Amino acid sequence: MLIKVNVNEKENLGGFKLVNCGNMSPPIYSENAGQDIRKYYKELYIPYVRNHDAALFNGGLRLVDIPMVFPLFHLDPNDPKNYYFKATDDYIQVDQDCGSKVYYRLGVSIDHSYNKYNIDPPEDYEKWADIATGIIRHYTEGWAEGFNYDIEYWEIWNEAEGISGEGRHLHTNWNAPYDTFLDFYVVVSKILKERFPHLKIGGPALCGWDKNENSAPMRFLKRCAEEKAPLDFFSFHWYTHDPHQMVKFSYEAREMLDSLGYKDTELHINEWQYLPDNGFSDMRENPPVAPKIYRSMQDSQAGAFEAATMISFLDCPYDMSMLYTTSTGHFGMYEADSFLPAKNYYSVKALGQLFHFYPERVNAEVTAEMRERISSVQAAAGLDENGNLSIVIANYKNGASDFEIAFENEYTGFEVMAVTDEHSLDSIPFTYENGVIKAECKHHSCTLWIKACK
Q1: What is the pLDDT of residue 245?
Q2: Is 361-453 assigned to CATH 2.30.40.10?
Q3: Checking CA distances to 175, which of 4, 13, 157, 330 falls within 20 to 30 Å?
Q4: Are 192 and 140 in contact (CB under 8 A)?
Q5: Using CA atoms, how far apart are residues 196 and 235, in angstroms rounded to an integer?
Q6: CA 223 – CA 186 distance, rounded (Å)
Q7: What does the pLDDT read at residue 171?
Q8: Which of 65, 223, 85, 211 is nearest to 147 (CA)?
């Protein structure tokens, strides 16, 4: 298979969108016991990080979630003594140190336990909004010996329609009928937007996108429109092995938002990840296959999927995308035992450094025959202020390939690195003649990172 990439440095496409954001910063739990990943995380150059599920990956620490920060709901939310901010303060400080802006999820972490503990709807929606107000003020207005951080995005809840079980044990995020969540969002969003008109209030981090009339997304959006509820951003999630699905969803969701009058509402896919076909159901029905599936979510093919997907998001209606996760855990980018970077980390690192150090996006046109319906070959290129070029090419499931990368400009030096089963951004052989680099990769999926110096 021949993959050609023509780079036109004279065709300026502007800057790069926020497609390489993440979920969860480095954990503060067990940093002194081998889980300190800050050095590696910094090298990803993640612009925004969402803090959903942080409590699940910082064992024993009370942080981020409303019940962790304000544990006794009957107390007065206007009294700073009734909040516990310390662990969340330290967790958010990690984001500041690592260069990521916080995207704060107001609500609770997912609950897959048999007996649910924190996902019952609050008894008083207005009081819950008062508690959220205390948290927002603490981190943006210095209240309760707090901070004046630039935290712009405040997301209300997560996956309220999520189910996994039976009876009372069915729900995973909102232990009540979905319609009650719609009531909750309308009340809370109006209160928070009135109090903080300069901040972005939105959500609701739905499990997925579905344009059918009675789907959870449609019911949410129509209810918001009917009630004129604030919606500065609309967020949903998707886990798949098909990168084209998510691009298709972006156009459908954008069209629906616009049709309901939410033309200025940002569109966020703020949880997504590579997942082998039937991955969730296979793990639940046959638990022994789980380790193999988790490993496949961190290999070089997963990395190629992640890089190709982020690049494809640059030219579709998403305003922001967030990989789940950019931290530790089975869905993360670090080996479970050593906490060293897994293969997919290196693909995401290449793209993050391209966006950060070469911020002037230029055209990189790909020509390749797709071998499978879900295969994808994507390329993104950028220039730095000195005219040096960087390009990332992601080949997802398109087989062993020869690469030809042609440039308009002349360069004096090159470096070609690869992420494969055998390479972790290691240099690979290449030739350069008449303005064209030629290289080959014999793996089913791979990521190439090329740097060209003037």
Answers
A1: 96
A2: no
A3: 330
A4: no
A5: 20
A6: 8
A7: 86
A8: 85
Domain ranges across the chain: 17-357, 361-453
Q: Is pLDDT larger for residue 32 or for residue 365?
A: 365
User: pLDDT tens across 75-124, in order?
Assistant: 999 999 999 999 999 999 999 999 999 999 999 999 988 888 999 999 99
Q: How open is the CA angle 329-333-335, to the nearest 5 degrees?
A: 70
Q: What angle do CA 89, 109, 269 make, to 5 degrees?
A: 95
Over residues 124-146, the pLDDT tens digits come to 999 999 999 999 999 999 999 99
pLDDT digits (tens, 9 = 90+) for 158-175: 999 998 655 556 789 999
Name the nearest CA neighbour of 379 among 345, 400, 404: 404
- In whole angstroms, give the CA distance from residue 364 to residue 228: 42
